[in-house]
User: What shape does this take?
Amino acid sequence: MRICIPTETNEGHKAKVHGHFGSAPYFTIYDNKKNDYEIIDNSNQHHEHGTCHPTSLLNGKKINAVVCVGMGARAVKFFNEAGIKVYRTDADTVKKMIEKLEENKLEEISVENACIQHGCH
Assistant: This one.
């Protein structure tokens, strides 16, 4: 499975998980079958809330899931329509997020519970 995680740094498993998907400086893609990482610069990180389109950076990357602290409902809907599940984590690093993933301790984000960390619902 290929998992996209918004991160503050480009340090692979040491990278800090960023608080919100669209404004992350990097996207760290972890492939759990190969146990390797691909890092993508988010050239769209500076934008007004709700107007980001970082998903275009992920085209062709064969992502199966996104794991983040938070994401807006429109982005969740976009990913779900593309067959990509979105999960919420409270892990502060990619390594800890992977541990939670392997322990099946991640909450799936739906359109209904998206963006709750910002008081949207």
About this structure: Residues 117-121 have pLDDT under 50 and may be disordered. The chain has two helices and six strands. The chain has one domain: 2-118. The two ends are 31 Å apart (CA to CA).
